[in-house]
Prior knowledge:
CATH architecture: Up-down Bundle
Number of strands: 0
Shape: globular
CATH class: Mainly Alpha
Number of domains: 1
Strand content: under 5%
Largest sheet: none
Mean pLDDT: 86
Structural class: mainly alpha
CATH superfamily: Nucleotidyltransferases  domain 2
Amino acid sequence: MPGNKSLLDAAKADMKASHAILSLYDDDLSINLAAYHIQQAVEKSLKFRINMLGESFPQTHNIGHLIDVLEKLNETLPDWLLFEARRLTEFEAQSRYILDFLASKKEVLGLLTATEGLIASFEPKSVSPERVTCNNYVNNIKPI
Length: 144
């Protein structure tokens, strides 16, 4: 992505898209599209976290697979994510291509809220200038 954008920024954009869709439309196809954006936000957030832990993320849309990678890196993830991994993965393609696939608005709104919490938990902690040490300064240098 151009500039200083990250996968976490892209996840936030997916969340904005999901919010916008849900605030404007109430039909089944639109709710499915909002669900797709939630899946994308979760996927991008998990891939961001894998990168932040110093690993390359696998090229997959499978939320369960990404969770497995993070668990091998000793990352603790919220219970709701472990429980909903399969359903979130279904949102990736089924919500767009299988016309009788239905996500309920209640389900999507619940996952929207939970995903916002996940994204917030992955936000890099800012370091105030007076607390910068040599080690964390070097670790926080951004390429030009």
